[in-house]
Predict the 3D structure of the following.
Amino acid sequence: MKLLKCFLSLFIVLVLTSLLSYGMAPVSDGLHWAMFNPMESIESILFMFSFGFGFPIWLSVVVVVLLLLALWYGIYLVLSKIFNKLFLP
């Protein structure tokens, strides 16, 4: 059960980064699968930290990794609470 929550929260983070990438893609006439690339959103966040805020590249990478891990762990905790309420009386 614990492994299911881990993979489900990881999948949710992947979907959220894919949707963020789709939201940042330029407007086009049709739907292209390349717009759902989660690495594009991660690269954009890295660019925001390094160029926009003036962080060094290594610090930007560390901050983005920590943000993704914090998001994954937060979703994992929420799923744990939900599964505990549903499956334990």
Q: What stands out?
A: The chain has a mean pLDDT of 90. The first helix runs from residue 2 to 24. The chain is about 80% helix and 0% strand. Helices lie at 2-24, 38-52, 57-87.
